[in-house]
Amino acid sequence: MKRVLTFGTFDLFHYGHLRILERASKLGEELYVGVSSDSFSLSKKGYYPLYKEQERMHIVSSLGFVHGVFLEESMEKKRDYLSQFNASILVMGHDWEGKFDDLKDICEVIYLPRTPLISTSELIQRIKLEY
Ligand code: CTP
Question: CB within 6 Å of ligand 1 — which residues?
């Protein structure tokens, strides 16, 4: 049974998020998603997400093709999460291309193309400028 793991903040959940999760789910039988904690997101992106970690986890877990979610507390724990879930595939957006190749000793690492023209930070900028 192939279990897929992927990670992200998924703040202001949008079409690009939906598409990567949908594609990741098709690569195996079960998809589990590590949702970045508020403090981990702050350290990655430089600001707190607009939606709280529990809200972001609730949204992602409500998707029919997501089997479960958990909080991702730090970048360095990816290896531990992959082992805990006994995952055979790690999916990341291609903005991370090559960055997780060291994990290829325990699972397949697949970088998927991002959906063009949408991101949380771009949405925030547009709302600031246009509304
Ligand atoms: N993602 C995607 N296509 C997009 C936006 C995001 O495939 N247009 C993917 C990312 O590659 C990642 C996952 O969605 O695997 C979660 O990304 P996240 O960083 O939470 O969302 P972004 O919209 O990229 O947020 P930001 O603008 O803050 O970087």
Answer: 8-10, 16-17, 20, 45, 92-93, 95, 114-115, 118-121
